[in-house]
Amino acid sequence: MEEKGKEEKEKMIEECCALHKDAFIIKPTKRYPLVLLMAMLSLVMIVGIYIFSLCLKQGGIVATPNQMKVSVTKRPCHHPTAAASEIPYIHYPEPTTYSREECACTPVRLFAILSMQRSGSGWFETLLNSHINVSSNGEIFSVKVRRSNISTITSTLDKLYNLDWYSSAAKNECTAAVGLKWMLNQGLMLHHNEIVEYFNRRGVSAIFLFRRNLLRRLVSILANTHDRDAKQLNGTHKAHVHSKNEKLMDVLDFLRLPKRKLSSQHVKIHTRPLARQVENWDDVYNALKGTEFERCLRADYQV
Ligand SMILES: *[C@@H]1O[C@H](CO)[C@@H](O)[C@H](O)[C@H]1NC(C)=O
Ligand SMILES: *[C@@H]1O[C@H](CO)[C@@H](O)[C@H](O)[C@H]1NC(C)=O
Ligand SMILES: *[C@@H]1O[C@H](CO)[C@@H](O)[C@H](O)[C@H]1NC(C)=O
């Protein structure tokens, strides 16, 4: 019974296929007139042309990797001496507003000086900018609309780090380090997660600059407000800072910049001991004595 069934099935399959063969081979030639055949032919031609144009388009796409290859071969600039851990911090920006051709192989470090008002960052930045290869562009984010949201912040940073930002810090020499001064209250704390992510992604070096002595910083704020009302020193900018030059050399080293002497027009003021600057020193002293801030009372300029 089963064998018979199988045979019948096979027969049916054969018949069915034969039918199909008939359908495909014989019927078209018999039924379709010449006009239809011509239509089919032209359809095939159209499809052919379409495929050809697709190929052309793809040819165009293939051409772009070639162009990319050219630009890749144009910058085998990677420092042969740079350690693998350094590579993320080495950049070769390609500004859109001008050609950086002659400096194309000068590696650029991206940095940000993160600080608070009256922490000596102005003096610090001036010193950095006295290096011919450094361009620190000041408090870019003091302009409110640039920090209105994270997308305006990142597009501003993109422009800066792509060397498309123009400020008085622009140099004719090849830039080896580009950055800005950024106060904590200029959107930095507000968007700190996204900004840290950006810094990590783009390999931005952060330089934290804070006064060790908070009390002295407060005094500096008060003193500076006072100075603003009083007459400014002629031709000099006032700053309330002190530091040792070796620290600066550390920063140059951090940014992998060639060491050179840095100078600033900033003049240090308010160098008297705190006790003689603060009118109600006794109150301040009593308030801080015995607290964790007591060290602020003692720490003074070590000139
Ligand atoms: C961000 O702020 C800018 C300027 O204020 C505005 O034009 C833009 O629409 C804002 N974008 C988002 C995503 O909020
Ligand atoms: C500094 O700038 C000079 C002049 O453009 C350039 O020759 C030199 O390579 C630059 N140095 C660095 C470390 O980029
Ligand atoms: C500042 O100094 C310049 C010369 O260096 C002088 O001409 C000017 O009068 C001075 N200004 C004040 C306010 O003293």
Task: Give a brief rundown of this model.
The chain is α/β, with parallel strands linked by helices. The chain has 11 helices and 6 strands. The chain crosses the membrane at residues 34-52.
What topology does this entry show?
Layout: H1 2-31, H2 34-74, E1 109-115, H3 121-129, E2 134-136, H4 150-161, E3 177-183, H5 184-188, H6 192-202, E4 204-209, H7 214-229, E5 238-239, H8 245-254, E6 267-268, H9 274-277, H10 281-288, H11 294-298
Parallel strand pairs: 1-3, 1-4, 2-3, 5-6
Describe this structure in words.
With 303 residues, this protein is α/β, with parallel strands linked by helices. The chain has two domains: 32-68; 86-212 and 219-268, Rossmann fold, CATH 3.40.50. It has eleven helices and six strands. The chain has a four-stranded parallel β-sheet. Strands 5-6 form a two-stranded parallel ribbon. The longest helix has 41 residues, at 34-74. It binds 2-acetamido-2-deoxy-beta-D-glucopyranose (NAG) (3 copies). InterPro entries: Nod_factor_sulfotransferase, P-loop_NTPase.
Q: SSE order in H/E notation?
A: HHEHEHEHHEHEHEHHH
CATH second-level architecture of the largest domain: 3-Layer(aba) Sandwich
Shape type: elongated
Going by helix content, strand content and strand pairing, the class is alpha/beta
Largest sheet: 4 strands, parallel
Rounded mean pLDDT is 72
Work out the strand percent.
Answer: 5-15%
Q: Classify the oligomer.
A: single chain
Which regions have little confidence, pLDDT < 50, spanning 5+ residues?
59-73, 229-242
CATH class of the largest domain: Alpha Beta
Ions, cofactors, ligands: which are bound?
2-acetamido-2-deoxy-beta-D-glucopyranose
Query: What's the number of helices?
Result: 11
Strand order of the main beta sheet, please?
2-3-1-4
Give the helix proportion (percent range): 40-55%
CATH-defined fold name of the largest domain: Rossmann fold
